[in-house]
Every structure is written in structure tokens, then in C-alpha cells.
Amino acid sequence: MFIVAVTSCPTGIAHTYMARESLIKAAAQRGIEIKVETQGSTGRENEITAQDLARADAAIIAADVSIAGAERFDPVPTLECSLSEAIKKSVKVLDEVVEAVK
Fold first, then answer.
1. 35-91 per-position pLDDT tens digit
2. Residues sharing a CB contact under 8 Å with residue 49, sequence separation 6 or more, in sequence order
3. 58 phi and psi, to 5 degrees?
4. 81 is catalytic
5. Contact 62, 36 (CB under 8 A)
6. How many domains, the chain?
7. What values do phi and psi take at 19, rounded to 5?
8. Which of 24, 51, 97, 100 is deepest in the core (most CB within 10 A)?
9. CATH code, domain carrying 28
């Protein structure tokens, strides 16, 4: 399974990257391949490409603000959650998205 994700917080500094790390760790525990784009104070990093979206089984948008390019995810089953959920309950978030695409 391949999941793409975007993390973004109002200031685009700490919580954006904390959520990214939590999702990556949870995905590794579950044997899931994940690519996480961050939208922070320095702009987009590790940007999700059209090729990534074409092979994605699902997407997670963990953000407390509107993300740039949200329409890219329209064709992909997408779970939206807060950054707090992605940081504190990353395994639960991943389990929910996996269950949704089964």
C-alpha cells in the first residue's frame, strides 16, 4: 500500500514536521509506504508529484490551515485530520485510512 500525505500548521514550523515524523514512524510500523509533503514556512518540501498521486491508494491531509493544491487529491480517497491527531494518534489515523480503502 502507498499513501501520500500533507502536513501543515499555521506557522509552518515545529508541528508540521512533528506530524510528518509521526506519520512516517506509524507507516513503518504497519509496513506501509508513505510519502509526506510538508507545507511550512519554507514552502512545499518533498512535494507530491502527479506520479505519486497516480499510484497512491489513499491520502492523508493533516493540517490546521488550508493547504496549497488540495484539489490534487480529489481523485484519491482522502482522510483529513488535525495536526494534533497526526502527531498523537498517527497509528489510528493510518488504520482509519487503510480501513477506508479496503
1. 999 998 888 999 999 999 999 999 999 999 999 999 999 999 999 999 999 999 999
2. none
3. -165, 170
4. no
5. no
6. 1
7. -65, -40
8. 97
9. 3.40.50.2300
